[in-house]
Specification:
Elements: H1 2-11, E1 13-14, E2 20-21, H2 32-46, E3 54-58, H3 63-73, E4 77-80, E5 92-99, E6 104-111, E7 120-128, H4 132-144, E8 147-157, H5 162-168, E9 173-183, E10 188-191
Parallel strand pairs: 3-4, 3-7, 7-8, 8-9
Antiparallel strand pairs: 1-2, 5-6, 9-10
Helix pairs in contact: 2-3
The structure holds guanosine-5'-monophosphate.
The site of guanosine-5'-monophosphate has 21 residues, from strand 2, strand 7 and helix 4.
Length: 197
């Protein structure tokens, strides 16, 4: 997605050879126009021949783009919670996710009320690195007995192995921008021109 790649080039901060900070439009401050455009792009891609009844993401950075995607499909957005709320009883699906950026394992939960075996779920997330977050969400979809329509990722770091792992497992992964290299020294971000599907 051209607009997103331009934004990443203009505002992305390379923290290391493996971590990109994009807090000016995705992870802290949010760009509304870009977020709406990303929702439309995911809709265009995944509405072809796929049934989607729910969009599923993880709090907090997936929520904005998950919402604009859900709006296009006209379906609810469900976000997995990282901290178990006191008002959530045991009626939840639980999965463990190791966080690449925080280097800690979190339990993510989704209330059983909001996902069922009748659902066709589209997973949306902000970043794909080693695929831990995506696999945690897949586990929740499987626990619900729901079917998985695909995974839409805003920024895939293609030099990490998550994308390959998920595609090899047969999941339909679509990324709006694929980064093949973060050059910390030269402050250069290289994209893969043709997005892998
Ligand atoms: P994974 O679970 O695929 O290893 O990592 C994906 C999750 O880690 C995303 O949900 C995102 O929150 C976080 N993440 C991974 N790499 C980056 C990065 O380079 N920058 C930012 N801002 N978040 C990242």
């Amino acid at each position: 997605m051209k607009l997103l790649k331009e934004k990443i080039q203009q505002e992305g901060i390379i923290l290391s050879e493996s971590v990109l900070k994009v807090d000016s439009f995705l992870n802290h401050q949010i760009d509304p126009d870009l977020t709406v455009a990303m929702g439309k792009d995911f809709y265009q891609h995944f509405s072809k021949g796929k049934k989607v009844t729910k969009v599923l993401t993880i709090e907090s950075s997936g929520i904005a783009v998950g919402l604009t995607t859900a709006l296009e499909f006209g379906v609810p957005l469900v976000f997995a919670r990282k901290k178990k709320s006191l008002t959530m009883n045991n009626e939840v699906f639980v999965s463990k996710v190791y966080s690449f950026t925080k280097q800690e394992t979190n339990e993510i939960t989704v209330s059983k009320k909001f996902l069922s075996a009748d659902d066709h779920v589209l997973i949306i997330d902000d970043f794909l690195a080693n695929g831990e977050a995506a696999l945690g969400l897949v586990s929740i979809v499987q626990q619900a007995g729901a079917s998985l329509a695909g995974m839409g990722i805003v920024i895939e770091k293609a030099f990490q192995d998550g994308g390959q792992k998920l595609r090899n497992a047969g999941f339909h992964v679509y990324s709006l921008a694929q980064i093949i290299r973060l050059d910390h020294e030269k402050k250069k971000i290289e994209f893969r021109e043709e997005a892998l599907v």
